[in-house]
Design goal:
The chain has 150 residues and is mainly alpha-helical. The protein has one domain (5-149). The protein has helices at residues 5-18, 20-44, 50-85, 92-102, 114-149.
Length: 150
């Protein structure tokens, strides 16, 4: 492994994590619509089936989870770009010290190699995609149940 390999790995991981913004852009309208529907539905109809309210609640909860993962993935992408852009090379120890001071890194995770950090952000990105898939699945299930309810 060359000395430049961690920098390339972090750069590729940052580019992958950047794709989390696309996932977040797809999720936000679904989350907003579900939350609006939950707040407005009691004023519109008193006979709305509980299944539809449940589906909207699942969409909203999955959307809130997706937002959490989007924040984490976006933060990691920004950190990785900073590490890659350093002229003297990635300073993982300095980044760990700053994250520890901010309370954003547990002491047990200090000193991890770049590979472990990339595995972590990849896992978060997969969870973000899974949350969006849960939203879409809940929308489709709610729509099917809504058509059957007619």
């Amino acid at each position: 492994m060359t000395a430049d390999a961690p920098r390339r790995l972090l750069l590729c991981a940052a580019a992958l994590a950047d794709q989390g913004r696309i996932v977040d852009r797809l999720s936000r309208p679904l989350t907003a619509a579900a939350l609006i529907g939950l707040f407005v539905s009691p004023a519109i109809s008193t006979t709305l089936p509980g299944v539809l309210i449940g589906a909207a609640l699942l969409v909203a909860l999955a959307g809130l989870a997706e937002t959490y993962f989007a924040i984490r993935v976006g933060f990691d992408a920004a950190l990785f770009y900073q590490l890659v852009g350093a002229s003297e090379g990635p300073d993982l120890a300095g980044t760990d010290a700053a994250l520890l001071r901010l309370g954003l890194l547990p002491p047990t995770k200090q000193g991890r190699p770049a590979e472990a950090r990339v595995a972590g952000v990849t896992r978060l990105f997969r969870w973000q995609i899974l949350a969006l898939a849960a939203q879409v699945g809940s929308v489709l299930a709610g729509a099917c149940l809504g058509f059957m309810w007619r």
